[in-house]
Every structure is written in structure tokens, then in C-alpha cells.
Amino acid sequence: MKAIRIPLIVLSLASAPVFAADADLSLTNDSVKGQVNFFDTNSEIQVGTGYTYHEGSRHIGNLDFHAQGRTALGNLPTTAGLGLRAIGWDDDDVDGGAVALGGFATVNIPDVPGLSFTGGLHYAPSILSFGDSDEMTSLELRASYRVIRNAELFAGYRYLNTDFDGRGDLNLDEGVMAGMKIFF
Q1: What's the burial of 15, exposed, middle or buried (CB within 10 Å: 0-12/13-18/19+)?
Q2: HSE-CB of 111 using CA atoms within 13 angstroms
Q3: Residue 141 pLDDT
Q4: Domains of the chain with bracketed CATH
Q5: What does the angle CA 80 – CA 19 – CA 123 come to, to the nearest 5 degrees?
């Protein structure tokens, strides 16, 4: 990572509380990701942006737009969203991206206050992909525990894969992750 990008990332994360509902930071063995969401779970829309640095000079950015609402799975309170995730990536001589359609759901467990499970899946066929990407799949699964009213810790699995322009699959980011989310 070039030294000039570090102050820009720090400045972006420091200014996040002014405009954001939450910000999270997650780590895998090979990557670090920061995500800022601009509306809370009571809003009817969710807009967010994120940046991932993957070891080996791979940069991945995302912009999310979802309609969201509260529902229930069985008797479990759930927040669900449907929409799109625009993803762009750059890795030295190759780059690409896609506009993936999909959604997410966060299920709260009332018997264990603070415990929740989140899953998100987005997929872009080749018609919605560009550059060296032919299609793209983004999957994220999390188990979270809210330690205090405005902060939670989480662990899970992240998978971001693209069909690399007819030359096979390329895992842009994959691994077990851990992180924290701060609510403003």
C-alpha cells in the first residue's frame, strides 16, 4: 500500500461518524476491510461504501444500495434488505468489477440479548460485469455479539470471487474474518 493512501483512509474513517450510522472494520489473514453504512436499521433504505486492501496490492471498493425493512423469520426479529452492490477491483495489471444484485438479512436472537447472525449474498452475471471480470459472487456470513449499546464484535466468513475473463476463477478475497462494528 502506498504511504499516501494511509492518511486518506485514516481521514475517511475519522470523518465517518459525522455522516454515518455505523462503521465496521474486519480482518482476514490476507486482507483488511472498512465499511461505512449511512442509515440505521429503522430506515427504509441503506447506502454504504467500503474499501478492502488485500495483500499483494489488490484494492477492492464497493458501493451498496438496498431497500430494507423489518420482518421476522419464525419468531425471530429480522432486518432484511434487497438491492445491489457495485464492486470494483484493481490488481496491478488487471482490474474489473460488477454490479451485483442480492440482499442481506440480520436475525436477532431474543433469548440471548446482543446475539445476531447476518448473511449477505450478491451475484452479477457477465452482462453486469466489466473489465477483466466475467461474473462475480460476493458472500458474507457473520455471528455478532453486541458488547455495549454502541459496539459489537463479530466473526464470520467472507468470499468474493470473479470469473477471470474466461481464464478460470479468481478469489479476490476469501477467508475467516473477525472485526468490530461501531454504531453512531
Answers
A1: exposed
A2: 2
A3: 98
A4: 22-183 (2.40.160)
A5: 35
